[in-house]
Amino acid sequence: MVPSSQIKIGRRVVDGNIWLARHGVSPPHVPKNGTYDYTVLESEAEVGHAMFNELRTYADQKAGDIVIVLLGGRGAQAMYGIIRDLAQTDEIDPLLARLHVFMQDALAPMRMNNSLSFLSDFERLLGPGFFEKVKSFTPMDAETRDPEGELERYVEKLESFGGIDLFFLGLGPETNAASHLCYIKPGSGAAYNDMAGIIPVSPSILEHHISKFKAGGTNVSAADEAECRNSTYILTLGPAAILGSRRIVQSIVDASTAPAKRASFSRLVETELSDDPDGLARQADENPGLWLRLHSDVRSFVLPDLFSNI
User: Is residue 7, in this structure, part of any structural domain at all?
Assistant: First the structure.
């Protein structure tokens, strides 16, 4: 691995998508084709406990601070409920005091206190005790007038803490049974060394975002929804952040309300990966969910309803 001090950030544009790339890193290892391991649990509560146990186990195995990237939407709500309740006691205070917490994406421009922002959702789900006790919390500034500068500063801060320990991820459905991670969209030109990006928003992204927030219990005013629908871009972490994390914890708990995830997950699991780096890059651009297949330590927790039509 190249020391972060030797890694330079460059800018490139692909069909209107702006990517901040890390120069000086090697392409990911092309894996052998094999099964994509996942654990089927019976309830969302069980998934929440499994995710939280991953955090506690990792913390037991590592000394010092821990850098985590939060998952928005439905996937981690049960875990956040567990953490919120414990944060009202002193039971996990030593763990919380070690956490540097980051968001993985944000719709913009949009007020940070809009009920449809990930920041508002995290505040609602995790509660004030969590934010008072963690070592640091870094949101993506969706109100900035300098999105590229904001994103570069965000990446630099993330790198300054030594990189990501735990990256909590879901799986977003796309057309043709493709999928997105964070908001890395199919055809956005994201490459293995892209640490973060600015993605033009589309009506399908906005519809998916709003519907999953409503399904998760968020009370959305007409004004907040109108502002959200006027967003024009997304700040998002990229493949280099995902591949560079030490462990990925994935959860998919909402196939009943987002049934397109069934076909997307099936394609993720069943795709035969190209053994040619260029071919693999094309596959990942067509279906960004496949970046998960290139990581060596993924813990995936899903519900039975993900397979009801597979």
Answer: no
